[in-house]
Design goal:
Blueprint: H1 20-23, H2 42-45, E1 48-50, E2 56-58, E3 62-66, E4 70-76, E5 85-90, E6 93-100, E7 119-126, E8 137-141, E9 144-150, H3 153-156
Antiparallel strand pairs: 1-2, 3-4, 4-9, 5-6, 6-7, 8-9
InterPro entries: A-crystallin/Hsp20_dom, HSP20-like_chaperone, Small_HSP
Pfam families: HSP20
Domain SHSP: 53-163
Length: 163
């Protein structure tokens, strides 16, 4: 049983930053010129990150669930080999990162439509206080990464019998 807290836990708080049009530099260089940031959907903007050295890192889509016993994270990583996925915990953050190298054999082909993400990716999930990061379990099947972070006994709470 989860107990109510005075603070709000937001596993995706970094998505709340409206940094897309200015930080990504998409206001010029497109056919017709001018600011095109209004043409790029917000959900796309929230899934792309530019590093200080100009590299592009994409953020895979994720769902976070809370059960009585754990926090469960599902991350979509279709086409990414298991050995290209890294999972770390730093402080109160679960960090999932790696690289999708794309489909072999098309390196010299001209891309006409590209909707799938390739290249480096990183997803940071903020964890609530009271999870047991020493007992994290992860499995990867059919492009879906599942990370299960057990709750500590104190986070689970306990039922008090009335006499």
């Amino acid at each position: 049983m989860a107990l109510a807290s005075t603070s709000t836990w937001d596993p995706f708080f970094d998505w709340n930053v409206n940094a897309f049009p200015t930080d990504l530099g998409v206001t010029g260089g497109w056919p017709g010129g001018g600011d095109v940031s209004h043409r790029i959907p917000r959900h796309v903007a929230s899934r792309v990150l530019y590093t200080n050295d100009g590299d592009v890192i994409w953020r895979p889509a994720a769902d976070v669930f809370e059960t009585d016993d754990a926090i469960v994270v599902h991350v979509d990583l279709p086409g990414v080999p298991k050995d290209e996925i890294n999972i770390e915990v730093s402080g109160n953050q679960l960090i999932i990162h790696g690289e999708h190298k794309g489909v072999k054999g098309f390196e010299s082909a001209t891309s006409r439509v590209r909707e799938r993400n390739i290249g480096r990716f990183r997803k940071i999930i903020n964890l609530p206080a009271g999870v047991d990061t020493d007992k994290i379990q992860a499995k990867y099947e059919n492009g879906l990464l599942e990370v299960k972070i057990p709750k500590s006994q104190e986070m689970k709470g306990k039922q008090i019998a009335i006499q």
